[in-house]
Amino acid sequence: MQIVDRRRNPQSKSLGNRQRFIRRAKAEIREAVKDAINARKVGEVHGSEQITIRSKGLKEPNFTLGREGKRDFVLPGNRQYQAGDSIRRPNQGRASGRKGSPDGEGQDGFSFTLTRDEFLNMFFEDLYLPNMVKTKLKDLRAPQPQRAGFSTDGSPSRLNHVRTMRRSLARRRALGQPSKAKIDEAEAELAAAENETPRDEDAIAALRVRLENLLRLRKSVPFIDPLDLQYNRYERVAKPTTQAVMFCLMDASASMTQELKDLAKRFFMLLHVFLTKHYREVDVVFIRHTSTAQEVDEQTFFYSDETGGTIVSSVFYEMLRVVKARYPTADWNIYAAQASDGDNFFEDTERCYEVLSEQILPICQYFSYIQVYDEEYMSMSEDSPLWDSYSALEGVAANFAMRHVSSPADIYPVFHDLFSRPGVDA
């Protein structure tokens, strides 16, 4: 048996060579992917990514002669030196004819484009989605049958009996097929005429002709004709087998500076990219809160100038309202990520814990809380009311995790720590 692979290679390149190159330069590509993700918006995950890696990772292995041992060389065109002459060693690191970097070294970058699947596989190759209670087939659109009217042919199991009998009745009525009751009536009249005394032979002959015509007409018009058959018709339509909604919850009070909001944005962006790796359809809901909470668009979520006090429980109530209105838990996988500096009114902290533990976590596949803070106020961040309150849930609720983030460099390690596979170093 001979198998011919006729799949089209991307951009007329060799698919095998491309895969070997990605495996060989995986370390450099992984670092470039980490840098590229920072330039994307939360929802910008549908597409390829052009990255640049160092040319050092492209060098092929080669074999050369060693510098030790005694060797004889024949140098054609030598008119300056004789056998036994000593040749001065050239100065190391001196470039001839071109200007280089101060340390005498330099490398050109190599740019190429990763497809969307390659980009996501590279970035999340060692991560997984925890507690996927409603897990179905990952990254798959399953063709499912959908009603698409009726047809005149099909399998017997799809025969629509009601429509078939309706068409049969209409056809028989249109062709004038006599009913069984009408034939029984003609037979009764003929029997009555034959039993009369004296018998009227002419009337009996007429009744017999009439009965024969009715029987012949009934036989000539079939009860079911192939034209009457109606089958239920289905078309296979690709429908998403998995869908998820991601709730981005963020404190927008006066204590949340723009730098802290940018830290939260990076985490939300990573979570969205990660969910699109495992779900075909992902909705994003942005809810910001001060003393009140409201659902907003992404631009308002991160860059609105509105500030105020802090009542964190308001964002949970708003999330529950949106879930009840648009995202039934039986059909949607719900994920939530909350970003805050930890400040909250003392009277509201206990209410937050109750709503989170009793109403939010039971409907969520996963809930992550990141506390963003400036490094100068690290001690203040650790003693925040929210952090102290949420600490009681860590280790108890399997679908809850919380971490500190103080700089952009902490985003990926924290994210990796939250979603790393068991037994894999973060």
Largest sheet: 6 strands, mixed
Strand-residue proportion: 15-25%
CATH architecture of the largest domain: 3-Layer(aba) Sandwich
The top level CATH class name of the largest domain: Alpha Beta
Number of separate domains: 3
Number of helices: 13
Structural summary, described in words:
With 426 residues, this protein is α/β, with parallel strands linked by helices. The protein has three domains: 8-36 and 47-54 and 111-123, no CATH class; 156-233, no CATH class; 241-419, Rossmann fold (3-Layer(aba) Sandwich). 36% of the residues lie in helices and 18% in strands. The chain contains 13 helices and ten strands. The strands form three sheets. Strands 7-6-5-8-9-10 form a six-stranded mixed beta sheet. It has a two-stranded antiparallel ribbon with strand order 1-2. It has a two-stranded antiparallel ribbon with strand order 3-4. The chain is flat, with a radius of gyration of 40 Å. 24% of the residues are buried.
